[in-house]
Amino acid sequence: MEFPGLGEHCSERTCKQLDFLPLKCDACGEVFCKDHIRYDDHKCSSAYKKNVQVPVCPLCNAPIPVQKGEIPDIVVGAHMDKDCKYNPAQQKQKIFTNKCLKPGCKRKEMMKVVCEQCGGNFCIKHRHPLDHDCKGSSHPISKAGQMYLSCSVQ
Q1: Helix (H) or strand (E) holding 48
Q2: What is the pLDDT of residues 69-82, one digit of tens each?
Protein backbone atom coordinates (compact mmCIF):
# COMPACT_ATOMS: atom_id res chain seq x y z
CA MET A 1 0.00 0.00 0.00
CA GLU A 2 1.47 3.34 -1.08
CA PHE A 3 1.15 6.65 0.69
CA PRO A 4 1.23 9.08 -2.25
CA GLY A 5 1.92 12.23 -0.22
CA LEU A 6 4.71 10.88 1.95
CA GLY A 7 8.42 10.81 1.20
CA GLU A 8 10.34 11.63 -1.94
CA HIS A 9 12.23 9.65 -4.53
CA CYS A 10 16.02 9.72 -4.56
CA SER A 11 17.35 12.03 -7.31
CA GLU A 12 20.11 9.56 -8.24
CA ARG A 13 19.00 8.28 -11.65
CA THR A 14 20.10 4.71 -10.93
CA CYS A 15 18.28 4.59 -7.57
CA LYS A 16 14.92 6.42 -7.50
CA GLN A 17 14.16 4.80 -4.12
CA LEU A 18 11.13 6.15 -2.25
CA ASP A 19 12.55 7.53 0.99
CA PHE A 20 10.36 8.64 3.88
CA LEU A 21 13.25 10.59 5.42
CA PRO A 22 14.89 12.15 2.35
CA LEU A 23 18.02 14.23 2.70
CA LYS A 24 18.67 17.41 0.73
CA CYS A 25 22.18 18.02 -0.62
CA ASP A 26 23.44 21.38 0.68
CA ALA A 27 25.50 21.95 -2.47
CA CYS A 28 23.14 21.15 -5.37
CA GLY A 29 19.81 21.19 -3.50
CA GLU A 30 18.53 17.85 -4.80
CA VAL A 31 16.94 15.16 -2.63
CA PHE A 32 18.73 11.85 -1.99
CA CYS A 33 18.39 8.70 0.09
CA LYS A 34 20.92 7.88 2.81
CA ASP A 35 23.02 5.87 0.35
CA HIS A 36 23.54 8.77 -2.09
CA ILE A 37 23.70 11.89 0.10
CA ARG A 38 27.50 12.18 0.06
CA TYR A 39 28.94 14.36 -2.70
CA ASP A 40 30.93 11.48 -4.19
CA ASP A 41 27.96 9.09 -4.10
CA HIS A 42 25.78 11.24 -6.36
CA LYS A 43 28.63 12.86 -8.29
CA CYS A 44 27.57 16.33 -7.18
CA SER A 45 28.45 19.01 -9.72
CA SER A 46 28.35 21.71 -7.02
CA ALA A 47 30.54 19.90 -4.48
CA TYR A 48 33.44 22.29 -5.02
CA LYS A 49 31.37 25.03 -3.34
CA LYS A 50 30.98 23.14 -0.06
CA ASN A 51 33.57 20.37 0.02
CA VAL A 52 36.53 22.57 0.95
CA GLN A 53 39.30 20.97 2.95
CA VAL A 54 42.19 23.02 4.27
CA PRO A 55 45.45 21.14 4.78
CA VAL A 56 47.22 21.57 8.11
CA CYS A 57 50.98 21.79 8.57
CA PRO A 58 52.16 18.60 10.34
CA LEU A 59 54.83 20.54 12.25
CA CYS A 60 53.14 23.71 13.52
CA ASN A 61 49.47 22.66 13.11
CA ALA A 62 48.65 25.86 11.21
CA PRO A 63 46.01 25.76 8.44
CA ILE A 64 47.56 26.33 5.01
CA PRO A 65 45.37 28.12 2.42
CA VAL A 66 45.39 26.43 -0.97
CA GLN A 67 44.22 28.24 -4.09
CA LYS A 68 42.05 26.50 -6.68
CA GLY A 69 44.19 24.40 -9.00
CA GLU A 70 47.16 24.14 -6.62
CA ILE A 71 48.34 20.80 -5.28
CA PRO A 72 48.01 20.80 -1.47
CA ASP A 73 51.18 18.75 -0.92
CA ILE A 74 53.31 21.28 -2.78
CA VAL A 75 51.76 24.24 -0.92
CA VAL A 76 52.29 22.58 2.48
CA GLY A 77 55.87 21.71 1.51
CA ALA A 78 56.55 25.34 0.55
CA HIS A 79 55.09 26.47 3.89
CA MET A 80 57.37 24.05 5.76
CA ASP A 81 60.40 25.37 3.87
CA LYS A 82 59.66 29.10 4.31
CA ASP A 83 56.90 30.18 6.70
CA CYS A 84 56.69 27.39 9.28
CA LYS A 85 56.92 28.58 12.89
CA TYR A 86 57.79 25.12 14.23
CA ASN A 87 60.01 25.19 17.32
CA PRO A 88 61.36 21.78 18.38
CA ALA A 89 62.33 23.13 21.82
CA GLN A 90 58.72 24.11 22.48
CA GLN A 91 57.58 20.53 21.88
CA LYS A 92 59.76 19.17 24.70
CA GLN A 93 58.48 21.39 27.50
CA LYS A 94 58.66 19.72 30.86
CA ILE A 95 55.30 18.81 32.35
CA PHE A 96 56.41 17.67 35.79
CA THR A 97 57.99 20.81 37.27
CA ASN A 98 56.70 20.96 40.86
CA LYS A 99 59.43 19.34 42.97
CA CYS A 100 58.65 17.92 46.40
CA LEU A 101 60.29 19.86 49.27
CA LYS A 102 60.61 16.82 51.56
CA PRO A 103 64.34 16.18 52.09
CA GLY A 104 65.46 13.14 50.12
CA CYS A 105 62.37 13.01 47.88
CA LYS A 106 63.00 13.61 44.17
CA ARG A 107 59.43 13.27 42.89
CA LYS A 108 57.86 15.98 40.72
CA GLU A 109 54.16 16.56 40.14
CA MET A 110 52.22 18.15 37.29
CA MET A 111 50.25 20.38 39.66
CA LYS A 112 51.26 22.10 42.86
CA VAL A 113 50.21 20.28 46.02
CA VAL A 114 50.55 22.98 48.68
CA CYS A 115 50.42 22.25 52.40
CA GLU A 116 47.81 24.44 54.11
CA GLN A 117 49.88 24.77 57.25
CA CYS A 118 53.42 25.50 56.06
CA GLY A 119 52.74 26.52 52.44
CA GLY A 120 55.33 24.13 51.03
CA ASN A 121 54.94 22.26 47.76
CA PHE A 122 55.00 18.47 48.12
CA CYS A 123 54.36 15.31 46.09
CA ILE A 124 51.24 13.21 46.56
CA LYS A 125 53.04 10.88 48.95
CA HIS A 126 54.16 13.71 51.27
CA ARG A 127 51.16 16.07 50.94
CA HIS A 128 49.80 15.55 54.45
CA PRO A 129 51.43 17.48 57.33
CA LEU A 130 52.33 14.27 59.20
CA ASP A 131 54.06 12.87 56.09
CA HIS A 132 56.54 15.75 55.66
CA ASP A 133 57.18 16.67 59.31
CA CYS A 134 55.33 19.97 58.94
CA LYS A 135 56.74 22.91 60.89
CA GLY A 136 53.92 25.29 59.91
CA SER A 137 51.86 25.05 63.08
CA SER A 138 52.24 23.49 66.49
CA HIS A 139 49.80 20.67 65.66
CA PRO A 140 50.21 19.03 62.25
CA ILE A 141 46.60 17.86 62.09
CA SER A 142 44.33 17.57 59.07
CA LYS A 143 41.01 19.47 58.88
CA ALA A 144 39.13 16.29 59.72
CA GLY A 145 41.30 15.81 62.80
CA GLN A 146 40.73 19.40 63.88
CA MET A 147 36.95 18.95 63.56
CA TYR A 148 37.11 15.76 65.60
CA LEU A 149 39.09 17.43 68.36
CA SER A 150 36.83 20.49 68.45
CA CYS A 151 33.71 18.28 68.64
CA SER A 152 35.10 16.03 71.37
CA VAL A 153 36.11 18.98 73.61
CA GLN A 154 32.59 20.41 73.73
Answers
A1: helix 47-50
A2: 788 889 999 988 88
